[in-house]
Amino acid sequence: MKPVKVGICGLGTVGGGTFNVLKRNAEEIARRAGRGIEVAQIAARRPNPKCETGATPITADIFDVANNPEIDIVIELIGGYTQARELVLKAIENGKHVVTANKALIAVHGNEIFAKAREKGVMVAFEAAVAGGIPVIKAIREGLSANHINWLAGIINGTGNFILTEMREKGRAFEDVLKEAQALGYAEADPTFDVEGIDAAHKLTILASIAFGIPLQFDKAYTEGISKLTSADVNYAEALGYRIKHLGVARRTDHGFELRVHPTLIPADRLIANVNGVMNAVMVNGDAAGSTLYYGAGAGMEATASAVVADVVDVVRALTTDPENHVPHLAFQPDSLSDHPILPIEACESAYYLRIQAKDHPGVLAQVATILSERGINIESIMQKEVEEHDGLVPMILVTHRVVEARVNDAIAALEALDDVVGSVVRIRVEQLN
Ligand code: HSE
Questions:
Q1: Which of 6, 30, 34, 32 lies closest to 19, judged by CA?
Q2: For residues 94-98, average pLDDT
Q3: CA of residue 157 to ligand 1 center, whole Å
Q4: Which of 19, 224, 414, 424 could bridge 262 with an S-S bond, Cβ 3.0-4.6 Å?
Q5: How far away, in angstroms, is 224 Cα from ligand 1 center?
């Protein structure tokens, strides 16, 4: 049988890795796909020194690939929103299947792209968009399709996890670790996407859609980064038996869905609390399977290429299938998506770590306890440290039981208004994940 022809747009870290894996494992991949897979064209502005493209035709114009009549599958690896959207829509219009690693594109323009793909009867696959080499999209979309999924929580940004790990284990400076992540090809073109949680929110948006069968709603995700975390809180969290991780959480509630990315205290003995470096992990809780955990490299040249190539194999296997029988893009049939709302962060429920800097006066603790109890906030544990020499203040650390965020906001405002409380109250959400 004739080989399937693919075109790769973008020859950066993931593009180079995809070319290399397709070439190195060509025989094994053909045995799986049932046909050979040939890279018929590459669009790249410059060569990738880690990639020997040999006689493969190269163009500088990505639309040459989308318009190439020889090509069956366009692999979009240029990143970004605007050009990538135009490229993918053009490829679909020309009847080509698309494989992409672009989480921003899917999270923001996925609803439009999938509608167009359905109209044209083509597939759009995006396993590499979430958690690099971990086949978590496939696991949720297909492996867990029997389940009513209750919640999922994931460390889904390798750069952020790498930074937090190096800071905690080696006391390295934030900027220094970020530079290393950029040199290793983990970080986004704009690294604020990594450290401010935007990249993780893109991925969480996608995971939530396939877990709950809801349209992609990136604009409703709550996003908080790691740039304001201090080593004091990292250390107090440890003393209380927790680790701080940058987590994406999606939860089903009776009122709607929670969709939030923020630093989170997790009990130190949970497996996911021990996921370090650039590694990612996603926990999914379903009513039938219980909790399952998916772990692996969340970024990197060949780890991400592994997911891209797996999608190409899936598309090749389904080429002769009737489009009505393709696995739906968002796991659920498009006319069966739920319109339950995404909850604003004030309506989400969590436990909280609060750090208060108080003057060393009698009665402060009683005032703090009163403010919390008046709002129905139950204290799980409390730790008061000795007076700090540099400012004469006493750090008071509390962990609450689960409560709606609006109530905690109200309590924080009341705490900050106390004469004996200095500066802002630090608040970090806590998840038990059990
Ligand atoms: N910048 C992303 C990360 C790359 O660090 O996880 C993989 O999506």
A1: 6
A2: 98
A3: 5
A4: 224
A5: 16
